[in-house]
Design goal:
Elements (H helix, E strand, L loop, with lengths): L5 H66 L2 H9 L2 H14 L3 E8 L4 E6 L24 H6 L3 E6 L6 E10 L5 E9 L1 H10 L8 E4 L5 E4 L2 H5 L8 H7 L4 E7 L4 E10 L4 E8 H4 L1 H31 L1 H15 L15 H56 L6 H31 L6 E4 H10 L9 E5 L6 E4 L4 H13 L5 E12 L2 E10 L6 H4 L19 H11 L3 E8 L2 E13 L6
Parallel strand pairs: 12-14
Antiparallel strand pairs: 1-2, 1-5, 3-4, 4-5, 6-7, 6-10, 8-9, 9-10, 11-13, 14-15, 15-17, 16-17
Helix pairs in contact: 1-5, 1-9, 2-3, 10-11, 11-12, 12-16, 13-14, 14-16
Length: 601
């Protein structure tokens, strides 16, 4: 089935009518669904981020209060003052065993030296301090600042053993006169903290994490990031939350190398931040599934529409194709009736009957035209050969008689008139032959140089004894067109008319320039004269057959008609305008526009 056939076009019409509305509705619906889904996920993520932030802040605050309550006990204060190692060991053991938040604890004196240490849980944190009794921890951010400020501090940093994520909480032990005499430090049970803060609040656990003020991972759904306390400060959401900002965004995560819908929220009083993220691919999976469903439905509807188009074509397009085949058969003079659906009772059947009648009439008219053409050619042959031969004999005899010295002036004038009439008759016959050659394309087209034709016309131009003729032209080779050899007659006719119709001395200016119209290149040949000009009322019909101007010059009015016919035969045209715009009395300008030969463009 040809792409350009009616059946193909009907099929192509059915497919867009069914599929395009579906696709437009599907795409709009999918985009709307995606936008709604994105904002829903953002709302959900932001809610989770805010909840986790509040839980984390509460968890830290409670653990700080818990350690502060231990540090403020008089027995603990007295044990530090008296260096009661036994009681301090019981205190750290109590913190490690009884506290929900901590799995390890130690105490220091005012110089930061460890006085007691205990731990009960090592499977998750995967570390336990060696014997640290007596070591100075004054340089630790959870000891030195507590001793200096007498305020509790929660610090998220890597531990001293393997650098994994660890949270330390230090509380001051205040002695008499409210002086700080030591610290109690608790080390978070990270498994319990993760479950309490992240696991209970987030539904998208694999993509929720807590970072400290430097952008390092404190807690992450992927324990691998916690084991090395990975630096996430390059993540845009982490950078924002480190600055205390909160918000939602769709952005690229350079650490986990994918696009994500994220919400972030700072944790008050800690400098930490919470990020809840969902990979865009996973978030938009429902949209992707919808688009796949739309594609499947579209393909199914395309198949259905093609089937409907084929069925429709059997009843509608097949008869139309029959008319088409019949028209081709008529053009090629073959039997066409076998294709015409003349038995149909609808409009197509009526068209078939009309086509049959039209074909019959065309055949009859064709026979008449052939006969008329043959008669015209006979007349032309008689005119071109027999009559023209007689004209030549007449002209020859008249020329011999005109040389008789005994002729009177009146006789010579009569003979001159007869010679003029015979020459005009020959000219008419020559013009008729030229018109036939143009109409029937009897002359082969070939490359012709406008420059050469103009120069020949200038050389052969009339040069009357009673007037001065000046022709200006700047020769330029290579102005190639594709046309018959007769094309020279166009320029010769225009130059001859300018000279013939001028009242006195005449100047003819010929100019050629290249122009472009509608993407095609042409040569515009301008032939302008300073003669009496052509009135506006005549310009419109000047190129009609047998139309002449208003001068007294002789002619049969076929020159410009032939010139226009020659120009139009190769896709050009000819027009007339005033040499001086707006003043038809200052001479005329004829412009011949001829297409540039293809190889020259």
């Amino acid at each position: 089935m040809s792409y350009n056939s009616i059946r193909s076009k009907v099929a192509l019409l059915f497919v867009p009518l069914i599929i395009i509305p579906l696709l437009v509705a599907g795409v709009i619906g999918a985009l709307y669904f995606q936008d709604v889904l994105k904002h829903s996920i953002w709302d959900n993520n932001m809610g989770q981020a805010e909840t986790i932030s509040e839980l984390t802040a509460s968890y830290v605050n409670l653990s700080e209060n818990y350690l502060t309550s231990i540090a403020d006990r008089p027995l603990v204060i007295r044990a530090v003052e008296e260096r009661n190692w036994s009681f301090l060991n019981e205190t750290t053991r109590y913190i490690a065993e009884q506290s929900v938040a901590f799995d390890s604890a130690f105490t220091t004196d005012s110089s930061g030296r460890v006085m007691s240490y205990d731990t009960i849980y090592t499977n998750y944190t995967n570390f336990t301090y060696p014997d640290i009794i007596g070591r100075s921890f004054l340089d630790r951010p959870y000891v030195g600042p507590v001793l200096n400020t007498s305020r509790p501090i929660a610090i998220a940093t890597g531990n001293d053993i393997d650098g994994s994520s660890t949270i330390y909480v230090g509380a001051p032990i205040r002695g008499p006169n409210d002086t700080t005499i030591g610290t109690v430090v608790g080390i978070y049970d990270m498994k319990n903290f993760t479950n309490s803060v992240i696991g209970t609040a987030a539904r998208n656990g694999p993509y929720v994490y807590l970072v400290n003020g430097s952008g390092n991972i404190i807690v992450h759904s992927n324990p691998g990031f916690m084991s090395s306390m990975s630096d996430f400060s390059r993540v845009p959401a982490v950078r924002d939350v480190m600055e205390g900002k909160k918000g939602v965004a769709e952005q690229y995560n350079p650490i986990e190398k994918d696009d994500r819908l994220v919400a972030y929220y700072p944790v008050n009083s800690t400098g930490w931040g919470v990020v809840v993220a969902v990979p865009s691919a996973a978030a938009y999976q429902p949209v992707t599934n919808t688009l796949w469903a739309i594609s499947a439905v579209t393909l199914a509807l395309a198949a259905i529409s093609l089937a409907l188009a084929y069925a429709f074509s059997k009843s509608i397009t097949d008869p139309i194709l029959g008319l088409y085949n019949a028209a081709r058969a008529i053009t090629n003079s073959r039997d066409y009736r076998q294709y015409l659906p003349m038995k149909r009772k609808d409009e197509i059947g009526q068209v078939a009957v009309c086509m049959d009648n039209m074909a019959t009439r065309i055949a009859e008219d064709r026979e008449k035209l052939v006969g008329e053409k043959n008669r015209a050619e006979l007349y032309l042959d008689i005119m071109g050969h027999d009559i023209n031969n007689l004209n030549q004999v007449t002209i020859g005899n008249l020329e011999l008689i005109s040389e008789d010295p005994n002729l009177t002036a009146e006789q010579k004038e009569s003979i001159a008139d007869a010679l003029g009439s015979a020459s005009s008759s020959a000219g008419i016959i020559d013009n008729v032959r030229r018109i036939q050659a143009i109409n029937e394309r009897q002359e082969a087209f070939q490359p012709e140089d406008i420059n050469d034709m103009i120069i020949e016309c200038i050389r052969d131009a009339p040069n009357p004894a009673d007037k001065k003729v000046t022709i200006t032209y700047a020769p330029k080779k290579g102005l190639i067109i594709e046309g018959p050899a007769l094309m020279k007659e166009v320029f010769c006719n225009l130059v001859g008319n300018a000279i013939k119709h001028s009242g006195g001395d005449v100047t003819v200016d010929i100019v050629v320039q290249g122009v472009e119209r509608a993407g095609k290149k042409f040569y515009d040949v301008s032939v302008a004269d300073n003669g009496p000009g052509i009135p506006d009322g005549i310009k419109a019909r000047l190129f009609n057959r047998f139309q002449r101007g208003e001068t007294k010059a002789h002619g049969r009015g076929l020159g410009l008609f032939i010139a226009r016919s020659l120009a139009e035969s190769i896709g050009g045209d000819i027009r007339v305008e005033d040499r001086v715009p707006g003043d038809s009395s200052k001479g005329a300008r004829f412009v011949v526009s001829l297409p540039v030969r293809e190889e020259e463009k």
